[in-house]
Amino acid sequence: MRKLLLILFALLAGFIVTAQNGLNKDSLLHLLTAAKEDTAKVKLLNNLAKATKNSDIAASYKYTADALALSEKISYNKGRFLALINEISLIRIEGKDSLALEKCKTFVQLAGSLKDSFYIAAGYLNLGEVYDNNGDNERSVQFCFKGLQIAERLNEKSLLQDAYSALQRIYLARSEFDKAIQYGKLAVTLAREMNNKAKEATQSYNLAYTYNLTKDFDKSIAVSENVLKVSREIGEKRIESYALYNLCSINLRTGKLNEALRYGLMCLEIARQNSDKGIESSTLAALASIYAQLRQYKEAEKYATEALYIREKTEDKLGIIEIKSILANIYFALDQPAKAYSLRMEVEDFEDSYNQSILSKQSSELEKKYETEKKEARIKIQQAQIHQKNILNYFLIGGAAALLVILLLTYHNYRNRQKLQQAKIDELETEKQLTATEAVLKGEEQERTRLAKDLHDGLGGMLSGIKFSLSNMKENLIMTPENAQAFERSIDMLDSSIKEMRRVAHNMMPEVLVKYGLDKALKEFCSEIDRSGAISVSYQSVGMNNAGIEQTTAVTIYRIVQELVNNAIKHAQAKNLLVQLHQAEKERLLAITVEDDGKGFDVASLKQSGGMGWHNIENRVEFLNGKLDIQSGVDKGTSVMIEFTI
């Protein structure tokens, strides 16, 4: 359900500099009939495009094209800007993110060539939002802050409101919820100050969505109901449909299926009236989930199939896979395993391909970095050699009188060459060791990933299918009380097996590490250990919110902390454990501390230890060029501190 919420959220990204004017559609059409071929007509066409965007997308496209053509004809740059903005907004509503990105680049180039600061800022903000939709969070934040700086310099409220709105959505996509709520409130406040009801409703919906995602359902419901009221007052059907969808999703997530169904059907009716395929497909998927939980599987199949048909016409591959996953579960319930397994295989193949593309990108970046460092090292050696040759040539010109000096310099040069050769040998040995260590670590992580996937998707899927089948069998069997009790125990044991299997798979390759980074992965790992009751674990992090740690490094650090925590549980007999991460941004240092109050040990005994655990920790620290310090003593607990340069 969270994936569907994210898909929906991207569809209602409020586009920049598109505030509605005070005229309605009928008034604008009346004025258009008498308009001349001038700038006033361009403004009317652009306003009509905005007025029909939420109710008739095809008409909005036509008015946008007419405005752009007339602007080109009469060389009206402001009209061209506004028409391009309308066009990009419509493209994004239809989910064509790659085309939207190209259009945004054209917009920014046009604004830059004309040196129009207002539209340059608007272009940056739009480009930031589109990069966010395309999954490039780093560029999205970069361009949004560029736009914000210009808006602050111009003291332009409409641009500032758009900047806050864009940053709210981007930080939400990065799961930085506090910042998302902070910027969302600023955007709503500015919209109210400008008395712009359309922007107020749109941004309030985004805020309601954030509360929904953070499970603050009471606030989300209150804000959504206000959005419904405002959108109905100003006739914004599209915003009304999104508020209804948010209320549908809240009730679905809280198990109030009848209320969820009521809101979902209302939302679907409006979406179809507006020809809004994005919200229509998301609502159909939500209705499929509702009917599946109500065990009305035929209805669920119908809605899921309709949602898939619409979604397959877009570039949203993640949305397609999410709906196929829902449909697979429905076919399992309908006892159509062939269809279910076929869809499940498609989902698994996509996830394999998606994960592989991420790993390939990371490997490519690592190789580029390695090659760059290698070239720089060669350049330094060559520069040193050239410098030495020049010195030698200068002294040779001195002739016979400087023979002694030449001999001394020659000897000095010989010694330097020996050092350079030894440096080359040492460098090659180091590269060889790093390559071997990297290969071992990559192989280990790939095997962990494969085993985790096999456990979770293969064995987990079969166990879940068995449980579902047994649960359905129970309703159709007549059993004695003793047999019924035994049957319930069997299902409980199966539940325990599924949970244990998922715990093992998650421990081997936590999904949260790939999705949300090192900080959240370690926080979840420590929380899970703490909940297990094996030991009381506290986790603290400082300066990790914007930590740009590449995937290979993050996985290696995660394994180091995992091994240290496991050692404390197995050997230290400790009651309390503290895990700390601290990033010093200026020094580009990452410090890791793991402390326990256990029985401790003689540090010197580690050198004679034959255990693989500590050996693996040392190898990983060496691979990352880190520094390791361990302090311990009998009955004094243990403290391990590791520093990395990132």
The largest β sheet comes out as:
5 strands, mixed
- SSE string, helix = H, strand = E? HHHHHHHHHHHHHHHHHHHHHHEHEEHEE
Distance between the termini: 36 Å
Coarse shape? flat
Lateral strand order in the biggest sheet: 1-2-3-5-4
Helix content: over 70%
Q: Residue ranges: pLDDT <50 for 5 or more in a row?
A: 1-22
Mean pLDDT: 79
Gyration radius, in Å: 31 Å
Please count the beta strands (DSSP E, at least 2 residues each). Answer: 5
Supply the helix-strand structural class. Answer: mainly alpha
How much of the sequence lies in strands comes to 5-15%
Give descriptors for this structure.
646 residues; mainly alpha; 6% strand; 5-stranded mixed β-sheet; flat
Task: Characterize this entry briefly.
The chain is flat, with a radius of gyration of 31 Å. Helix 18 (337-396) packs antiparallel against helix 19. It has helices spanning 2-11, 25-33, 39-52, 57-74, 77-93, 97-114, 117-133, 137-154, 157-173, 177-193, 197-213, 217-234, 237-253, 257-274, 277-293, 297-311, 317-333, 337-396, 403-476, 481-508, 511-516, 518-532, 551-572, 612-623; strands at 536-542, 576-584, 589-596, 627-632, 638-645.
Describe the protein's topology.
Elements: H1 2-11, H2 25-33, H3 39-52, H4 57-74, H5 77-93, H6 97-114, H7 117-133, H8 137-154, H9 157-173, H10 177-193, H11 197-213, H12 217-234, H13 237-253, H14 257-274, H15 277-293, H16 297-311, H17 317-333, H18 337-396, H19 403-476, H20 481-508, H21 511-516, H22 518-532, E1 536-542, H23 551-572, E2 576-584, E3 589-596, H24 612-623, E4 627-632, E5 638-645
Parallel strand pairs: 1-2
Antiparallel strand pairs: 2-3, 3-5, 4-5
Helix pairs in contact: 1-15, 2-3, 3-4, 3-5, 4-5, 5-6, 6-7, 7-8, 7-9, 8-9, 9-10, 9-11, 10-11, 11-12, 11-13, 12-13, 13-14, 13-15, 14-15, 15-16, 15-17, 16-17, 17-18, 18-19, 19-20, 22-23, 23-24
